[in-house]
Amino acid sequence: MIHALLVDDDLDLARLLSDYMGSHEVTISHVENGAAALAVLDRETFDVVLLDVMLPGKDGFEVCRQIRASTVAGVPVVMLTARGDDADRIVGLEIGADDYVPKPFNPRELLARIRAVLRRARPVSFANATSSSVRAAHAGPERLTIGPLNIDVGARTVHRLGTRVLLTSFEFRILVSLARRAGEVVTREELATLAREPVHTKDKPAHYDPSVDRSLDVHISRLRQKLEDDPKDPHLIKTVRGAGYVLANRAPEAL
Fold first, then answer.
1. Are strands 198-199 and 207-208 parallel, antiparallel or unpaired?
2. What pLDDT was estimated at residue 213?
3. Which spans in the chain are helix H?
4. pTM to 2 decimals?
5. 154-165 pLDDT per residue, tens
6. Which residues on neighbouring strands pair with residue 164, listed in sequence order?
7. Backbone angles phi, psi at 79, to 5 degrees
8. 186, 185, 188: which is closest to 196 by C-alpha?
9. How many CB atoms lie within 10 A of CB 208?
10. What residues does 244 pair with on adjacent strands?
11. Can you tell me the distance from the alpha carbon of 80 to that of 105, in angstroms, rounded to the nearest whole number?
């Protein structure tokens, strides 16, 4: 069962989603504004937050920023909005949203996106994967030390020089993928597959959202902001032009 927090002042939409999602093993808790959302997140645990942008009081962008700066920073956030242009999508991604669904939407598509976000956030327990790499990760705790970074994969925590760094679920997945192959180039295509999930709609067969590839640079930029001494001159996450990205396997001062 998935427990989702819906933050939206549209009561009709809340009733519709509660009825539909309830029949697909998703329990919806509903609040109508950002202040109430932050309060309930401080008391309860949720698998995903469905966050409208156009809220009374604090808008969804500000609520998302505060979630990412809080103790529940790792909870996946899917933004819901009637403002569907690229500029708003990029703003949502830059402040930490994991996905962005423009209104009006088909509840079935939203359900598919919720499941996709959770597959990225907890691939072993949510997806029924059987690959050798997944089985190895499930066999015991995995901890990676790369330069100044200490990554506990099982606990989903990252420390830089002893200080905790709060990452979104997608940022964490990118970092772990780079860390497991530290010193090697990981292609853009390989990293993009972390988020490239099939989207099913009533009128179309499964297809892939091209915005995922475009958003990869945004996520890399956010990682650099959090992990680098100077994000404009990165020493940890380096771009290999025309190929992809590489996580340096030595401390910055040793490079």
1. antiparallel
2. 54
3. 11-22, 34-43, 60-68, 86-94, 107-121, 123-126, 132-139, 169-179, 188-192, 211-227
4. 0.58
5. 778 899 998 999
6. 159
7. -90, 140
8. 188
9. 14
10. 187, 240
11. 9
User: pLDDT digit string (tens) for 196-242?
Assistant: 544 444 444 444 444 455 678 888 998 999 999 998 999 999 999 88
CA distances from 27 to 2, 14, 36 (A): 6, 12, 18
3-class SS of residue 26: strand
Measure the CA angle with vertex 189, ends 109 and 134; round to 5°. 75
Find tokens 């396997």 and name the residue. Answer: 249
Crossing angle of the two packed helices 107-121 and 169-179, in degrees rounded to 10: 40
Is residue 48 within 8 A of residue 114, CB to CB? The reply is yes
Residue 10 Ramachandran class (φ > 0 left, ψ -120 to 50 alpha, else beta) = beta
Per-residue CA distances from 88 to 69, 93, 97, 197 (Å): 20, 9, 11, 21
Measured at the alpha carbon of residue 234, what is the angle toward residues 233 and 239, in degrees to the nearest 5? 110
Q: Which residues 6+ apart lie within 8 Å of 242 measured at CB?
A: none
Per-residue tokens: 87: 């500029």
Q: At residue 5, what is the residue type?
A: L
Two tokens, residue 229: 């001494």
Q: Which two tokens stand for residue 93?
A: 């991604």
Q: Are 252 and 236 in contact (CB under 8 A)?
A: yes
Tokens for 138? 């499930």
Mean pLDDT for the chain overall: 80
Burial class (CB in 10 A: 0-12, 13-18, 19+), 225: exposed
d(CA 70, CA 62): 12
